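Protocol step 4 of 6: structure prediction from sequence.
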Amino acid sequence: MTKIHKSFYHRADVVLIARELLGKYLYTCFEGKVCSGIITETEAYAGVTDKASHAYGNRRTNRTEIMYREGGTAYVYLCYGMHSLFNIVTNKADVPHAILIRGIMPVDGIETMLLRTHKQKITSDFGIGPGKVAKALGIHYSHSGLSLSGTEIWLEDKGIVPGENEIVVSSRIGVDYAGEDARLPYRFIFSKYQKKL
């Protein structure tokens, strides 16, 4: 096992970390069932100065307080009252940076993931979209606050590094309310493993 050390998440550049997460393996183990997927899409959220971030303006609520923990913590929130969305908190404590995991290519535990998602087979868009990622991996908003150094959710580095020509960079999705910050190039896609853009 090559579990990613917490120092990886403690760095200051959330955009760089979002880019470097492409190709890493995201693992979960719930009720003894291990599942994993290669991370194919991420979005960076730069904390108090980023109008698209839940912590913009140093907003601290029961939900966002998790974002102020040290890097390497899971921040999972409920979207539209139905979808759990999984984020990775980065930077040091009290700097609320986070990265939304928007896409994975399933690797381990495919049968379990199909059962969770009520699918018959893996299709090209399976695991594409943050709600689909969390559902396939069994991540629920009640898991918010878990350490990524633990045994329920963790990341591994298996040496997959995308080339510059394999990374698609764009603005983030669904953050039009953020004005000029909505156009920031904070979304990264690993095109080799994610065919549906």
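Step 5 (inspection) to follow. The longest helix spans residues 110-117.
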